[in-house]
Amino acid sequence: MSLQVSGLGWGHSQPGGGWRQLFSNFELSCPSGQFLVVIGSNGSGKSTLLNLVAGTLRAQQGRIELEGRALEQQPDHRRARWIGRVMQNPLDGTAPGLTIAENLRLAERRRRSPFGWRGLLGLHPSAGDRRRYRALLENLGLPLADRIDTPVGQLSGGQRQTISLVMATLGEPQLLLLDEHTAALDPKAEATVMALTDRLVRELGSTALMVTHNLDQALGHGDRLVMLQDGQLLGDWAGPERQALTVSYLRSLYGSAKVPPTES
Amino acid sequence: MLSLWLGAFDQGLAYAGLALGVYLTLRVLNFADITVDGSFALGGGSAAMLISNGVAPSLALLAAVILGGLAGCVTALIHTRLGVNDLFAGILTTTGLYSITLRLMGRSNIPLTDLNLGLGPLPDFGTGSDGDWGFALTLVVAGLIGLLALLLSTDLGLALRALGNNPTMARANGISGRTGLTLGIAAGNALVALAGALVGLYQGFADVTMGIGSLILGLGAVIVGESVLRPRTIPMALLAVVLGSILFRLMIAVALQLGLEPVDLKLVTALLLLAALALGRLRLPGVSDGGKSP
Fold first, then answer.
1. How far is CA A186 from the centre of its chain?
2. Fewer CB within 10 Å: N-end or C-end of chain B?
3. pLDDT band of B241, cuts 50, 70, 90
4. What are the chain B neighbours of A113 within 8 Å (beta carbons)?
5. What's the gap in Å between the CA of A138 and the closest CA on chain B?
6. pLDDT band per the 50, 70, 90 thresholds, residue B118
C-alpha cells in the first residue's frame, strides 16, 4: 500500500464557539500507482484530507504513511521531498518573481534541503539546467520552452498552473496531490492541464490523489473514485462499478444520508 | 567642493552594508526587520570598543559581523519559533541590544582618533584620506556585491528568494521557512553591523545611539537605487542598492551644505524617504513588484 491513512482524527473549533470533529477514525488506503479522484460537497473534508496528507494541517490522531514512511509528525516542507502538490490557486504553486527555470530548479531539487552545504555548490539554473527544462517543456508540447527566463508572474493563470503541475512532478515524488487544480482555469486551459495531468501521472507512475468538484472530470480521469460526506467515505468505486457511474447519479448523492446507498 | 562629493561617496559606501542588509531582509525575504537599528549600533560600538582596546581593525570588523549575525538570529528565532510577528520580534531584539551595546562599550561614546587603519599601502590619489577611504571602501563594497550576487544565484540563494516571494510555494518545494529566515536575517544583520563598524571608523567615533533610524536610511537607499536603475537582475539590484546609498548620502550632504542643522538630520532623512516613497508610488505603480523580482 502506498498511501495509508489509518485512524485519522481531526477537528477544529468553529468561529461561533464549539468544536467540529470532521474526521474520526478515518481510513483510506491507496495502492502504489493508483490515480484516486475524491469528490464531495463543500465542507465534506476533501481539501482538509489533502492538507492533512500534505502536512499543511497536522493530524490530531492516527497515522499517515507513504510507502511505509510515517508522515504525520513531519512538517510540510519535509513531506515535500516525497509529495508533489498542485494547489487550487495558480498563484500559490509558483514564485512569481522567479523565472520559469528558477521555479523548475527549486522543484527539481526538492528532495534535498537547499540549506545544506550542497546548496552552495554551483550557480543555478545553470546552462545545463536550462537545456534540460527547455527539452522537458518541448517534450510536453508546452509553448513555454523559449520563455524559461521569463518571471512566472508574467504568465497567465493557466500557464502558471501548467508550470505548477510540471513542478509537482519533478524530483520523483511518490505521491501527487491535486487540489481542485483546474477550478480557477478557463475551459481551454482546463483541458490542457487535465491532458497534461493524465500524461504526467501515467509517465510518473506515482500514486495520485485529485480533489475536484467537476463531475465530468471525476468520471473522465483516474482509476478510482471516492466520495466524501462529513468526513466519511460515502462511496468508493473502481473498475466496472466506476465505469457504470453517471454524472446524474453522482449528483443525486450530494447532500444525501451518511449511509452509502446500495449500488446496483 | 570635491571633498563634499568625495565625503558623501565615502559615507555612502560605508553605509552600503546597511542598504545591502535591508535589501536582503526586506526585498529578498520580504521581512521588515527593525533589528537593523540595533545591530548597526552593535557593530559600531563593539568594533570601536575592540579597536580602542588595541585589537586590529580587521579583527574588530569580523567581530562586529559575527555579533550582527547573532542579533539577526535572535530576531529570527523569536519570529519563527515563538510566532511573534516580524516588527515586534525586531523591536524586542533592538530594545535588548541597546543595553548590550552599552554594556560592551562601557560608555555611550567611544572616540576613534589617531587610528592607524593600515591604509598606508594604498596608492596615493592626492586626495588625502578621503581618497584612501574611497578606494578601500570601494574594494570592500565591490567584494560584498560580488559575494552576495554569487550567493543569491546558488540553490540556497534561490531558496531564500522563493521564500520571500511565495512562502506557500517554498514550503511545498521542501524549503524550510524557519531555516531560511534565520539564515537570511542573520546575514542581513551581519552586513548591517559591518556597516555600523565601518561608519564608526570613518566618522571617528561610535555612539550607542548611532543606530536610530538605520532601517529608514537603508530603505531610503534601496528605494532611491531601485528607482534610478530599475534593476532586472540580482547583480544589478545589488549595484542599485549601493548606488542608492551613495545618492542618499549625497542628498544629505547637499542639504547640510545648504545650511541644514545636524539636529534636523533625522527629520530630513525621514522626509526624504517619504518623498522617495511618494514619488515611487506616483511614478511607477509597479515598482514594488519590479523591485521584489529583480
1. 19
2. N
3. very high
4. 174-176, 179
5. 23
6. low
Task: Give residue limits of the domains in chain A.
Answer: 3-253
Which pLDDT score, from 0 to 100, does residue B286 have? 35
Q: Which of A53, A56, A77, A167 to mutate to test the interface with B (most CBs of B within 10 A)?
A: A77
Query: d(Cα B59, Cα B50) in Å, to the nearest integer?
Result: 9
Domain covering A3-253 in this structure, CATH number: 3.40.50.300
Question: What is the CA A160 to chain-centroid distance, rounded?
Answer: 15
CA torsion B20-B24-B28-B32 (nearest 10°) is -110
Q: Which residue of A has its CA nearest to B164?
A: A95
Do A122 and B165 make contact, defined as CB atoms within 8 angstroms?
no
As for the ipTM of the complex, it is: 0.90
Closest residue in chain A to residue B177, using alpha carbons only: A77
What is the interface size between A and B, counted as CB pairs within 8 Å?
Answer: 111
| CATH architecture, domain defined by B2-107+128-292 | Orthogonal Bundle (1.10)
pLDDT at B287: 35
The answer to whether the CB atoms of B174 and A110 lie below 8 A apart is yes
Give the relative orientation of helices B35-52 and B214-229 as an angle to the nearest 10 degrees. 110
A107 touches chain B (CB under 8 A): yes
pLDDT at residue B224, rounded to an integer? 87
Name A227's bridge partners.
A39, A235
Instruction: Note whether A120 contacts B173, CB cutoff 8 Å.
Output: no
Q: For residue A184, give how far its alpha carbon lies from the nearest alpha carbon of chain B (Å).
A: 17
Q: Is B1 on the interface with A (CB under 8 A)?
A: no
CB of B200 within 8 A of CB of B112? yes
Mean pLDDT of B175-193: 97
- What is the predicted pLDDT for the residue at B289? 40
Higher pLDDT, B288 or A157: A157
Task: For residue A263, give the DSSP letter.
Answer: P
* pLDDT one-digit tens code per residue, B129-176: 777 888 889 999 999 999 999 999 999 999 999 999 999 999 999 999
Give residue B288's pLDDT. 38
Statement: residue B235 has pLDDT above 90: yes
pLDDT of residue B281: 57
Please identify among residues 154-183 of chain B the ones whose CB lies closer than 8 Å to any CB of chain A: 154-156, 158-159, 161-162, 165-166, 168-177, 179-180, 183
